[in-house]
Write a structure and sequence with these properties.
The chain is of the alpha+beta class. It has one domain. Strands 1, 2, 3, 4, 5, 6, 7, 8, 9 and 10 form a 10-stranded antiparallel β-sheet that branches. β1 and β2 form a beta hairpin. The radius of gyration is 17 Å and the shape is globular.
């Protein structure tokens, strides 16, 4: 799992946030000891945005695979996780994403997370040649809220469950003799959402 997958989720959420920020009123930035941003809170007349690096796996609603460890960002040694909340009149978006590594093969992780995910509904298994977790939060032209696969072949596996408004995603790929995997939770609400 390359950092592009993780960055795609963050960039997507921040792109939506930028559309809401034009009339920004207040910005509060909390920094880590090394000076890097840890948490950013922005409040505007039409809503707010909260972005933090320290995501909690409990917010994803899934257990961490036994023996897995948070994947570290090579540049600063910090874990690769994010928690993004955007709210405005009539629209809201929450994205929680964490990346892990395991010494176990992908098939073991897939079996474990299929069992974990079934509590949320029917599990969709997608096979791709690359992982780029990009949650689909828009309904189709026909108003479908079902999750779909974007690929049908490859060594990487995405397990998805829920609807476009409330989805859990586990993305697994081979990484040396082990695996890398991401746990992602996406929830939206607005005029087209059922929540």
């Amino acid at each position: 799992m390359r950092s592009t997958k993780f960055q795609a989720v963050s960039i997507f959420a921040l792109g939506v946030a930028a559309a809401l920020l034009l009339p920004a009123c207040s910005i509060n930035v909390k920094k880590e000891q090394n000076g890097q941003d840890k948490q950013v809170d922005i409040n505007t007349p039409v809503g707010g945005i909260h972005v933090s690096k320290g995501a909690d796996v409990a917010d994803v609603g899934l257990a961490v695979y036994p023996g897995a460890r948070l994947k570290q960002d090579g540049s600063d040694g910090k874990d690769k996780s994010a928690n993004v909340n955007i709210s405005s009149f009539g629209f809201g978006l929450k994205v929680v994403a964490l990346e892990y590594q395991s010494n176990d093969a992908p098939d073991k992780l897939v079996a474990y997370y299929k069992d974990q995910l079934k509590k949320y509904g029917r599990v969709l298994e997608c096979h791709t040649s690359h992982l780029d977790v990009n949650p689909d939060i828009k309904g189709s032209d026909h108003g479908s809220h079902e999750l779909t696969c974007e690929g049908s072949s490859g060594n990487n596996i995405e397990l998805k469950v829920g609807t476009k408004e409330n989805q859990h995603i586990v993305a697994v790929e081979p990484d040396g003799k082990g695996s890398s995997f991401s746990l992602v939770y996406v929830r939206t609400h607005g005029k087209d959402a059922d929540i």
